[in-house]
Amino acid sequence: MLGMVPFTPFRVTISSLGLASEYTLTLRRQPDILERHMATDRAVSFTGISFQNPFLLSSAPPTESESNILRAFEAGWGGVVTKTIGLHPVTNVVGAKAKFMRTSPEDSCVSMKKRPGAALHSSWNWELISDKTIDWWLPRIRRIKEAFPDRVLIASVMAGSGNDKELKNWQHLAQGCQDAGADGLELNFSCPHMDRRDMGSNIGKDEGLCSVVTEAVREVATVPVWCKLTPATAEIEVEAGACFRGGADAIVSSNTFPSIPIIDPETLEFEINVDGFVSSGGLGGPAILPLSLAKMSQMTRAFPDRSFSGIGGISDFNQALSYILLGCGTVQVCTAAMLDQAVGPNVIKRLLAGLDAFLERNAARGWTGVEDFRGIRRDRIVAQSEIRRPKGEDYHSGYETVEGYATA
User: Fold this and answer.
1) Shortest CA distance to 310 belongs to which of 283, 52, 301, 299?
2) Do strands 330-333 and 19-23 pair parallel, antiparallel, or not at all (unpaired)?
3) What domains can be seen in the chain, in order of their start residue?
4) Neighbour tally for 199: CB within 10 Å
5) CA distance linking residue 333 with residue 336, whole number of Å
6) Contact of 249 with 225, CB cutoff 8 Å
7) Of 47, 97, 57, 99, which is closest to residue 78 (Cα–Cα)?
8) How far apart are CA 148 and CA 144, in angstroms?
9) Active site residue 109
10) Per the residue annotation, which of 177, 191, 210, 227 is the catalytic one?
11) Residue 36: enclosing H or E segment and its boundaries?
12) Which terminal residue of the chain, N or C, has fewer Cβ atoms less than 10 Å from its own Cβ?
């Protein structure tokens, strides 16, 4: 969608049936609209892959079916990351796999119960990776790429860790997906609720495993390798560094945050449960935006020259912009898309319109694409002790003044 341009009223004379009649028409005159649109560029190059725009659907339930991925590309998404593909048997829990939490201004109550006037707070899920086999996925990856050769399809993959067999499983998944036509690989080191302890976020919390698994995949990969990290670690830049040492081309963050459902005060049961029992699941959506930005800033400041893809709480360009300003070259969306016909046709329209409008507003700065403003607020995040204090304050970074020669 093109941004709105100031219009100039002008007069048009219309002759009909030989009778000259004048009508003053107020028309929106856009003599330079095509030139202005052509001067701005939605396209980005990320880890050597050309994207029509920087907006992707993240690996999640909406990207498990061929039809949904095709619909996503038809809607305008620049890329799609498949639901995570594995080799081990996958059996999900009984009942609902995901629900949405909402809150209302009257009482600030957060609940999965639908209430009039309540606004989206977050999503919660405990769904495992794709329960479809690699043999099911590979022909579909081929067909999707044949249908949309100019769009980017990233294959999300996961295997175990701790022995050579599992490392070979990572390699088998990588080779199969890239041979089928996937443009890149996203290694899932981040799922917070796997039923196996050697998978998902348990890899992402271990610096050694991050490096070893990435290196194993890099040995066979002929396409870019992205590592998706869990936010459930104190110093995420440590794990990011391990992935880069293993050969990763980019880091993706944040996946959902480990969490449990809320307890219903009336029934005293968890709002989502199976036979009264729950386990840890993943929290996503608007509630995690500030948390995800903080995690991303830790990494982009530690590795300002590396590539990052941001996820968490994005529903329009305003949130996407925050990630880009911190240094992300692409952003990914899940919760907002799930609530918009599963693949977010209206979400991508808002994102594209927002990007176009932002570039038009900043045309005087010479900004024509994402690279012109990517990372320009990364260095504004500093230690708390570096934030300015009131004038005249005798401030020593929170410490008492030391007497004697030690003060020099």
Assistant:
1) 299
2) unpaired
3) 1-39 (no CATH), 43-372 (3.20.20.70)
4) 23
5) 7
6) yes
7) 57
8) 6
9) no
10) 191
11) helix 33-39
12) C
